[in-house]
Structures are given as structure tokens and as C-alpha cells.
Design brief:
CATH superfamily of the domain at 99-291: Metal-dependent hydrolases
Number of helices: 8
CATH architecture of the domain at 99-291: Alpha-Beta Barrel
Distance between the termini: 64 Å
CATH class of the domain at 99-291: Alpha Beta
């Protein structure tokens, strides 16, 4: 930050009419901030801060000013040379879509409290992020707020401490996770894998030991977790798990925590008013999609993600996927057996005949980091759920490698749980 009175007696007032993420920078890359605001940079190296109707001391040189507001909005930008005194800059980013108007609320379930709570509050409203789950960090203690909305929550923005709990490969997962669920917590993994994963060997070799999603193959089989992170970055692993008969929600991950919060979001379709409890219930029932920006919808005969349809052989369904948002190049509809159809941005549709149990998901993909992935609509046939042999065998190999890895690290308690998960998968092969 550089607010040197010897260099400038000029100010700019930034106004959008609602909280935004602002960036102000000069040609040499210097960032300019309101007084008292800690400098921060996003993934592109641009300075940023949050709020509205803010005043900044600036130099008498050409500046670029940008206003953004999370993934549901475009960005507005201008350049100017401030005049003497105060210069008013009014910018309002255009809304691209309004998820909440359709009952969808986006959340960041992995926000560490490494900054003052006021910074988190400003960020949540400035990014129009509906739900924030705060985890312990190096900032101020927040234990007294567990189970209660934090003070800056309102009708469309909810902040909680420990709304979602991330497993760490504990010795007695069944008892511990059951108690956490009784408290209403969502159970999942904060980080998934360090890179693209296609084989069991990659899954075990690339799992993040700090938040060991390598164990998801165990916990999913035993019904101990609600979600898989990240269904965006580790989509093949996620589809192997649901193809093997596990029913877990697609949620966004947290591969790195640089830049503004809410860069990846878990959207959940909430029944009625947004509360921490209604959002958690929606995630737990799989009414979700994970995204880096696109708004992605899936329907199978009018039923959305998280639904289970019990069909008779030969039943025909119409499946549609629809996407809104910049950067998308392809929309795909996938079943357990592969691609059903794909097409350019907008809406894709296909007919599907139910012969054996399967699922259907929608995926949106584009250049860079543009990704979105829905939870499935499960298509049971004569009350039998999908348990594709190739996917079950994949999970059994994953278990085998995992057992070798943890034998001398976790203890016999978890090895017994691995053995129990193996029995579940083997029963699905019958």
C-alpha cells in the first residue's frame, strides 16, 4: 500500500450502490487501498479490497479502477487521472445470473480465519457469497459462535463456525463422525488431490495428507461422509465413487486459499428460507453443483440433482443440462457408462432408456479454470442402485493400496474400518 501525502493530495470515492470487490492500480502495478485496509492481491496479482462508498488517497497519475462481485456478476472497469480534491468513480458490475432467485445458494465451506472477522464479513458481502463456513485459523478465536450465525449474517448471507467439518483420517471415524453429524455438521474433505487422477495408484500417491481425501473411498462406502471435494478438480475420482454405489454430494474444493474467498463455490438448492440448517440439509441430500463460475442445471424428467428415480426396465427419460456464465466451451451429460451427449454453451438434451441402474450428471468445461459439476440424479432400476463392476473393482484396488499405505501409520482401528468398507464393495459385486 502507498498513501504518501507528499505525493498526492487527491482522493477518489468508489461507489457502486452495494458492496463490491474493488481493485485500484497504477501503470507500474502499484496497488492503492483505503486507510487501515491490509494489502491483498488476487491470483492475477491485482490489489483488492471490499466495500462500498470508499475513499482512497491516490497519486496524480493514470489509474485503473475495477469493480467485481463474485461469480454471479460481470466486472466493470475504467481508467482515469484524478483531479484535484475528490473524484467520484461510480461503477456497478452487471449481474450475469441470480441463483438465489431460483433457490440456489453458493457457499465456500473452507474459509480459514487467518484475518480479522471484519475482513471476512466485508469479503462475504463484497463477493455476494451466500454461505461461509469458518474454520479455526490464526485469527481471533470464534469458538463462542459455534452453532450460531455470525453477526454480519442476513436473509441471503449466512456465516457459521464449523458448519462443515473436514475429516482427517481419525482412528475411530464411525463414533466421531456420528457425533459431529448429531450436531448438524456436514462431513467432507477440505482438499482432494494435487492433480488430475485417473488410476487408483494416482489417487493414493497424490492425495493431500493434510486433508486426506484418499480415505474417501472408505468413508463413502460406510456412509460416514456427505460430500466429496473437489468434484471439479477430481471429477474422475468422484464419478468412480458414485458409480460404485456411493451416494455423496459434489462440492467445491480448496486446492489453495490465495485471493478472494468464494472463487470455488458449492451451490445448494434450498427448500424455503436460507439458514445454515437448510443449506446443510440441501448439501446432505445432494441437491448441489460445484463451480468455479458457471451456473449449471440438470434435470431428468423434471428431477434435479440429489433425486433418486426408481424405474422399471425400458423407462424412457429426457435429460437436460443448461449452463449460464462466461468461458464455458462444452456442456456434457454423463452416465455411469460414459457420455450421453454434449454440446456448446446453452442447453443440451438427450433421451435415455433405463436398462440397468445408473446415474446422470451434468458437467460444464471451458478454458483455464472454468469448470462446473453437478451431483447425480440416481436412476435406480427395480430398486437396485448403480454398482458398475468396473467402478467397484476400481474402488477395491484403491482400498488395497490405501491399506498398504496406512498399515503402519494410522493403527489397527482404521484397518478394521477399511476391512468393513471392503466387505461393502464386495457385496455390491454380487
Amino acid at each position: 500500500m502507498r498513501n504518501d501525502a507528499t505525493l498526492t493530495s487527491r482522493t477518489i470515492r468508489l461507489r457502486a450502490g452495494f458492496p463490491c470487490r474493488w481493485s485500484v492500480w497504477s501503470a507500474d502495478g502499484r496497488g492503492w487501498y483505503p486507510k487501515g485496509v491490509s494489502p491483498a492481491r488476487d491470483l492475477d496479482g491485482l490489489p483488492y479490497f471490499h466495500g462500498d462508498d470508499l475513499v482512497i488517497e491516490v497519486p496524480p497519475e493514470r489509474l485503473t479502477v475495477r469493480a467485481a462481485r463474485g461469480m454471479e456478476y460481470d466486472r466493470a472497469e475504467t481508467t482515469l487521472v484524478p483531479g484535484d480534491g475528490e473524484t467520484l468513480v461510480e461503477l456497478a458490475p452487471r449481474r450475469i445470473y441470480d441463483a438465489a432467485a431460483h433457490g440456489w445458494y453458493g457457499g465456500d465451506l473452507h474459509v480459514r480465519l487467518n484475518r480479522p472477522s471484519q475482513w471476512v464479513a466485508d469479503s462475504q458481502h463484497g463477493e455476494d457469497l451466500h454461505v461461509v463456513n469458518l474454520l479455526p485459523g490464526d485469527g481471533e478465536p470464534m469458538d463462542c459462535w459455534t452453532g450460531r450465525d455470525l453477526p454480519w449474517s442476513d436473509d441471503t448471507h449466512v456465516a457459521r463456525v464449523d458448519l462443515a467439518h473436514h475429516t482427517l483420517g481419525i482412528d475411530d471415524p464411525g463414533d466421531c463422525l456420528t457425533k459431529l453429524r448429531e450436531r448438524g455438521a456436514l462431513i467432507g474433505y477440505a482438499n482432494a488431490f494435487r492433480g488430475p487422477v485417473e488410476t487408483p495408484e494416482q489417487l493414493v500417491g497424490l492425495g493431500d495428507p493434510g486433508f486426506d481425501a484418499r480415505l474417501s473411498v472408505v468413508d463413502a462406502a460406510l456412509g460416514l461422509v456427505d460430500s466429496f471435494s473437489s468434484a471439479i478438480g477430481s471429477a474422475p475420482a468422484y464419478r468412480r465413487l458414485i458409480g460404485a454405489g456411493n451416494r455423496i454430494a459434489a462440492v467445491a474444493g480448496a486446492a489453495h486459499r490465495l485471493g478472494p474467498i468464494g472463487r470455488e463455490r458449492t451451490y445448494a438448492h434450498v427448500a424455503g428460507r436460507l439458514t445454515a440448517e437448510s443449506y446443510a440439509a440441501a448439501v446432505r441430500h445432494g441437491r448441489t453443483f460445484a463451480t468455479t463460475g458457471p451456473f449449471l442445471e440438470l434435470s431428468a424428467n423434471g428431477h434435479g440433482p440429489g433425486s433418486t428415480l426408481n424405474l422399471t426396465p425400458g423407462t424412457r427419460l429426457r435429460v437436460t443440462g443448461r449452463v449460464i456464465g462466461p468461458g464455458v466451451e462444452t456442456v456434457r451429460l454423463l452416465t455411469a457408462d460414459g457420455e450421453l451427449t454434449s454440446g456448446p454453451p446453452g442447453e443440451v438434451a438427450a433421451e435415455l432408456t433405463a436398462i440397468w441402474p445408473t446415474y446422470v450428471v451434468a458437467v460444464a468445461e471451458g478454458g483455464g479454470q472454468v469448470r462446473a459439476h453437478t451431483s447425480p440424479v440416481y436412476l435406480d432400476v427395480e430398486k437396485r442402485r448403480v454398482a458398475r463392476e468396473e467402478d467397484v473393482t476400481f474402488c477395491l484396488r484403491w482400498l488395497e493400496l490405501l491399506e498398504d499405505l496406512i498399515r503402519d501409520r494410522v493403527g489397527t482401528g482404521y484397518l478394521a474400518v477399511v476391512a468393513e468398507a471392503r466387505r461393502v464393495y464386495e457385496s455390491r459385486l454380487a
